[in-house]
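Exam revision sheet. Question 4 asks you to relate a sequence to its structure. Input first:
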Amino acid sequence: MNKEPKIKVGILNETKVEFRLYGNYKTSQGDILTDLYTAEISNENIFLIGNDGKKLLLANFEILEPADENTSFFELIDVTIGVDFHWQRKENQKFKGALQFIIENEKITAVNVINIEDYLTCVISAEMSATSSMELLKAHAVISRGWLLAQIKKGEKINENKTVYKSINETANAYIRWWDREDHKNFDVCADDHCQRYQGVTRANTQYVTDAVEATRGMALTFNGEICDARFSKSCGGVMEKFESAWESVEHPYLQGLADTDNEKAIDLTIEENAENWIRTSPAAFCNTHDKTILSQVLNDYDQETNDFYRWKVEYTQAEISELAHRRSGFDFGEIIDIIPIRRGTSGRITELKIVGTKLVKTIGKELMIRRTFSNSHLYSSAFVIDKDDEQNGIPQKITFTGAGWGHGVGLCQIGAAVMGAKGYNYNKILAHYFPNSKLEKLY
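Answer key, structure tokens:
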């Protein structure tokens, strides 16, 4: 790879898309566009409607190219951020690069076509505070770049082999599902937390972020000559999780269940008794911090609406949890009698969970499916233990989840990495800690 690649980022998918062009943009037919437009579908075609009411027919997959990449940008109106998370909201977002329109599922998908280094500058600013430590920013630039390049390679292999990416294993007694590549066939990545949080130039890009991306330009982690699928989450909860606990059953030697500490060996949290004790206590770890200065490096304003993430607690009544499990999973369990961990990963996250109901008994997984089933958005993680109280005729009327960590826990722990940066670790040490057996290479 000798040249900086361009990537395609899916921003939103709506029945109509309102947007504003700042500067001149050109269509493939040579039309020059500027100002406010609405993109709509009519008779399976895309039309742009201007402020003056004039309509312009666009081809599917049409790209509006900026006349000047340095000064032109576009704004998308009412982009939903934090999809399905507790802080979901809409905001207007501005983007550099080109704008593409695609018809998908009878809606219009707006796609940003942009240079990867410009994309990374925006991702780092959206994923964490633009005032984070330089070493943390460098580490995140490397893994965000590597993850993206690995996803592109993965997509290319799927297309070359003409295989269908399977992410659901279902039997009469079990429903095991994960989310990864299957959602994005017409672009490389999406703009939300499902991939990497990308909000264009809406978030302030400080010189620090620009310098961190430039200092690591073209650099990514590799293993045996292949680009590492470098994952990250907010808080591992004290021990990192293996890749296969969250996604397909593929082992990556650089994504292992290690302790988020200097020198301690991780306790075996696949054993239920160990996991129970671990989750109910608050062991020392890099990510076990309440230092607001450090946390503000990683958590944007809306992320800081979450106060407890290293250890947390959620309580439900029987009426609440039975309705929630039915609505969110699609399975009618009836009243919930018991919730039993069947399999845990290295971080204590449950990957297979048996739900015993008055109408149905079923095992679900993997970690994200579990998190979605017991929350209107997502539980912070699937590393939890259950307490049942006030049983009536064998049915608990109150169920309490006590949990650890925030996110899937695989790869870099953002809060832990922020603490490492504050303690003086350089980005090479941070990367070596979270991605053992990997090698840092310059790809372009």
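Marking note for examiners. The chain has a mean pLDDT of 91.
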